Amino acid sequence: MFASMPRVWCMPGLCEALHLDDDTRGDNSLAFDPECFYANPKLQDSKAFRPFGGAARRTVGYFVSVLITRFDLAVDQESSSSFPLSDLAKPAAGIPLSQAGDDVELLFGERREEGR
What we know:
- The chain is of the alpha+beta class.
- It contains 5 helices and 2 strands; from the N terminus they run αααααββ.
- Strands 1-2 form a two-stranded antiparallel sheet.
- The longest helix is centred in the middle third of the chain and has 11 residues, at 60-70.
- 1% of the residues are buried.
- One of its GO terms (molecular function) is heme binding.
């Protein structure tokens, strides 16, 4: 009558649901406040803090977040043209490619903000 269950099995968890739990994330977990993890060291070390996945499934967003939180970024006005235009003549999966020569160069500098 009952379906048998294998001896070893995995049950997928919804890491996103942990970010909506006040016990895990702190007060007001439904508000968009990415700084809450930065401001609270207890939350930084929490196993529930998995915004970008992990291991081979870690998203590019993780690396972008490191760049924008640890460095000051600016567009190099001398070597960059206006914002790049999409080359819609060439098919592309996902984000369209930019037109040739429309590169934007960024300047990276060490973040000098107090308290970070």
